[in-house]
Design goal:
Helix content is 39%, strand content 15%. With 391 residues, it is an alpha/beta fold. The protein binds pyridoxal-5'-phosphate (PLP). Pyridoxal-5'-phosphate binds next to helix 4.
């Protein structure tokens, strides 16, 4: 495959892109690094497959192409050493929908659902809107790396009201790619206390060497039987706007209940473009993914290098995802001051840390899936803004 030019500047304002929408980033020339998608064009193989489908011109009701599920099964086996049977896979419109259905089916209003903040903010909104009680098991930051607090997890999982955990594997925003040992420890605690593990594995393909994504359900039958995996190629191939998702549920009782709920809510309708894009991605875009991971790693390295000259801003080294978790606490700004500083002085439209839970105060999540030139400019602006603070 010839090299992909990830340096090409593509004007995202030509379509109603959320990442650069004035409602999200305001007006003016800002570094749009909040919304979690990439500025890069999707893999050529995906675009060509979509064009062929578009050229057909008939968009009546469709079923799923026989090749779609095998494309996912082969992908999981080939890249992640996870052997999944086709009957365990259900379709979902998107990951958040699958998370919401899992909570509404397998917990009651008022029941507790564990989350591990700082964590993807939509977990909080979704649980609140579904009237579930959020139980926090905060991650611990030690020596620049986050890890799980298993003693606290054990205590909270033992609460009879606690029925479920939303696991984020790999973790948005702190960039941890959980190890088999960590996942097993979590799985053993949850298994013992009958806490169902709902594992959001959206970022599974975006992992930097030498780290390795371990699917929670691949750890063994007892882990698979007490879990629901939500997965999608949306982030991996930058196709969020024309993508759907999958739930992988080996436990037959849970799967049947999920299937019945999907039918009741009529979420089974097929979107031809999503199906075509996903299948082409899994079957033909692996070389593109290899290249984008190299580009993203170089962007991470650039940030790490430049931050050495920017006092008071620390990078939490990511093991995966294109989202960086930056620690601004040493700048000694209040939450509002940090928001204004990033937005007004640095021109950075990023995700504010406290949206990921109280533990995120003083941090920000920054999406680095952009051209190197854009990142260079953004880092230059940050450096100037920080030096302005100190002068
Ligand atoms: C961890 C995680 N889960 C889910 C989503 C959203 O998934 P979807 O768009 O399929 O609902 C995101 C998007 O940023 C995410 O980071």
């Amino acid at each position: 495959m010839s090299p992909v030019n990830f340096d090409e500047q593509i004007n995202r304002r030509e379509v109603p892109s959320l990442k650069v929408h004035p409602r999200i980033i305001g007006e003016g020339d800002v570094f749009a690094a909040g919304v979690a998608d990439m500025d890069f064009r999707a893999p050529a193989a995906v675009i060509e497959a979509l064009q062929r489908r578009l050229n057909h011109g008939v968009f009546g009701y469709e079923t799923v192409d026989d090749g779609l599920m095998p494309s996912l099964i082969n992908w999981l086996d080939r890249r992640h050493d996870w052997n999944v049977e086709q009957r365990s896979i259900l379709r979902a419109p998107n990951i958040l929908n699958a998370l919401a259905i899992a909570a509404s089916l397998f917990t009651e209003p008022g029941d507790g659902v564990l989350v591990q903040p700082p964590v993807f903010f939509d977990f909080f909104d979704l649980l609140k809107e579904n009237h579930r009680t959020i139980i926090s098991n905060p991650l611990i930051l030690e020596g620049g790396r986050y890890h799980m607090d298993f003693d606290d997890l054990e205590k909270k999982a033992a609460d009879p009201h606690c029925k479920m955990i939303y696991l984020c594997n790999p973790h948005n925003p702190v960039g941890r790619v959980w190890s088999a040992e960590e996942l097993k420890q979590l799985g053993d605690i949850c298994g013992e206390h009958k806490v169902l593990v709902v594992s959001d594995e959206m970022h599974s393909d975006l992992v930097f060497k030498p780290h390795r994504y371990v699917p929670f359900a691949s750890l063994g039958s007892n882990y698979a039987q007490n879990s629901i995996t939500c997965i999608s190629p949306a982030k991996s191939f930058n196709i969020a706007a024309c993508c759907s998702a999958f739930t992988i549920i080996e436990n037959e009782t849970l799967r049947t209940a999920f299937q019945v709920e999907n039918s009741r809510l009529t979420v089974n309708k097929n979107n031809a473009f999503a199906n075509v894009a996903m299948q082409a991605a899994y079957e033909q875009a692996e070389p593109w993914l290899g290249q984008v991971l190299i580009y993203l790693q170089a962007n991470v390295d650039l940030v790490a290098e430049r931050l050495q000259d920017i006092p008071g801003v620390e990078l939490i080294k990511p093991e995966g995802t294109f989202l960086l978790w930056l620690d601004f606490r040493q700048l000694d700004l209040s939450t509002d001051q940090l928001t204004d500083f990033l937005k007004i002085k640095a021109g950075w439209a990023v995700s504010r840390g406290y949206a990921f839970g109280e533990q995120g105060r003083g941090f920000a999540r920054v999406n680095i899936a952009c051209t190197r030139a854009k990142l260079e400019t953004a880092l230059g602006r940050l450096e100037m803004a920080v030096s302005g603070l100190n002068s």
